[in-house]
Amino acid sequence: MKFTAEQIAEVLEGEIIGNPEAEVSELSKIEEGHASSLTFLSNPKYTSYIYSTNAAICIVNEDFEPEKEVSATLIKVKDAYKAFSKLLEYYNQVKLSKTGIEEPNYIAESAQYGEDIYIGAFAYIGNNVKIGNNVKIYPHTYIGDNTKIGDNVIVFAGAKIYSETIIGNNCVIHGGVTVGADGFGFAPNDKGEYDKVPQIGNVIIEDNVDVGAGTTIDRATLGSTIIRKGVKLDNQIQIAHNVEIGEHTAIAAQTGIAGSTKIGKNCLIGGQVGIVGHITIGDRVRIQAQSGIGRNVKDDETLQGSPALGYNEFNKAYVHFKNLPESIKTLHNIEKKLNNNGSK
């Protein structure tokens, strides 16, 4: 798909310096630009590349004045970085603008779906499923019975949405995600074995949630596992049964959250964090990568380490930890001197 400088400038409300008919078909970094690519310059650190780039079109800030000849057509805007981000969003919308129902697939007679729908080949849509408008369900996706999906939702290839799940508006569910599998519920019996505890709850995902590839969100034992509006989940995260994650919290990859833990609003949780079950984490909490959380956490705390300490406390302790071999050596020397003095 090709776009001219004139078309791009119209979308961005920018001023063209150069050829308005210059065409591009892809995006690139400024240092990797080529004859059919569009790029941008916002960081002064990369200014030198604008004189050597082979990109056909470059978006720049409106106050940019070249010091020598530039071969690319320039589009001047108020903020080049924001403009390029807007263009990425627009490009992504165009790229994902699929509609229609592909064959083969299975759609239950009792299923309902809205307008401008896309259902890819080999998708399975179960009984009593309700799907909103402008929803895109990519190939090899499973949507279980009694699931409800709102408007403007994208479910990428290979995702598995188990029965009774509720997904709000404007959500993105990436490939390989599993929503609504059984929670890890087993009870030991008198034979030394484990009996499965039925998991009869569901998962609720509110509006504007992104769920990264390979992430798993377990259904509740009773009630609901809840992902509140605006939450952003990275790839390969495990969220156990009856967990609740507060609004606009962001969690990085490989984090594991055990059952019935409640996480507050606007938290930032780094990668490979482990969080035990049945605790409460407050609002605006910051947890550094690879931390282990085994206690309740108050609002606005910042934690690091395993078991996690306050961030400043951890850094102070780490200074001594790094010097531990030398400190032990010093103690041994003192002990040796004391022993020698005592023998005299």
| Largest β-sheet summary | 12 strands, mixed
Widest beta sheet: strand line-up: 8-11-14-17-20-25-28-31-34-37-39-40
* Residue share in helix: 10-25%
Principal-axes shape call: flat
Total strands = 40
Stretches with pLDDT under 50, minimum 5 residues: none
Q: Mean pLDDT, nearest integer?
A: 93
Q: How many helices in DSSP terms?
A: 4
Structural class designation: alpha/beta
**Based on the structure given, which CATH architecture of the largest domain is correct?**
3 Solenoid
Walk me through what this model shows.
The protein is α/β, with parallel strands linked by helices and 344 residues long. The protein folds into 2 domains: 3-95, 3-Layer(aba) Sandwich (Udp-n-acetylmuramoylalanyl-d-glutamate--2,6- Diaminopimelate Ligase, Chain: A, domain 1); 100-313, 3 Solenoid (UDP N-Acetylglucosamine Acyltransferase, domain 1). Helix content is 16%, strand content 29%. It is built from 4 helices and 40 strands. The strands form 6 sheets. A 12-stranded mixed beta sheet has the order 8-11-14-17-20-25-28-31-34-37-39-40. Strands 9-12-15-18-21-26-29-32-35-38 form a 10-stranded parallel beta sheet, with no helix packed on it. It has a 9-stranded parallel beta sheet with strand order 10-13-16-19-24-27-30-33-36, with no helix packed on it. A hairpin with a 5-residue loop joins strand 22 (186-188) and strand 23. The radius of gyration is 27 Å and the shape is flat. It starts with a strand and ends with a helix.
